[in-house]
Amino acid sequence: MRFFITDDDPAVRLMLAQIIEDADLGEVCGEAEDGSQIDRDFLEWKRAEILLIDLLMPNRDGIETVRQLGGYSGKIVMISQIETKELIAEAYSYGIEYYVTKPVNRLEVISVLQKVKERVLLQQSIEGIQRSLSVLTACAPGARVEQSYSQKTIVSAAKYLLTELGLISENGSKDLLDMMEYLYRWEKESAGDARFPSLREIFLRVAAHKVGAGSMAQKEMKAAEQRVRRAIYQALTHLASLGLTDFGNPKFETYASTFFDFTEVRKRMRELEGQVGTALSQVRINTKKFIFVLYMESKRRIG
Question: Which fold has domain 2-122?
């Protein structure tokens, strides 16, 4: 695995490089002392698979640098002594994998980088399977095998995310997986040119595919809306519970601000502290955002 370190403190860069090498995580392919010294093309040229970047740097800070790295194929780990919740949430909104606080803790860095390394290897494995399959499909009549494989792959990625969010056993999880299949087909058929379907259209199309058109589809659509909403609320509650127990929990840091409005997560955390149940909760659920993020994250994980 190839790591690139960007930090204005040479002592921190040296420490991170030693941790990576001593733990046999991979090799450091380059270093920079400011975000202004790197861009996406440079990192791709270096074949950097994991970028470690400081938040505060003199010329261009970590968040601005990550924002300008749009399309970078590697994973990003941010390191900073600042623990402001708003900054952490903003960093996650731009796609970082983990946020590690300074002073650097050797065991924490090894644990985080090992997890990120495993994700990179999993993604590379899936991409390798896809390339192999595309070669086989090119020699066979039609393209049904490729489409079927891709649909199964995006469902598998979505299942992983739903498991991480603590709702794979909820009734609405099956509805969400059906939506991932529908959205995959929709994107293929529209060639990515059409607007993202409305929430009502998604529910109705999935319901019609399941029970047929007509009044039955309308009833199924309403039932599915309730199941999905309850499942999403359960995911929010699960993440809020993790945040209350440990604000630095990797799942909380990774998913809370990605799938939900962080203000609503904080609101649910306060409710749990006050032992407010579901019936009295004032939290607002953005169903369309959750479905959109679930689809985009699932696609990102399969490359």
Answer: Rossmann fold (3.40.50)
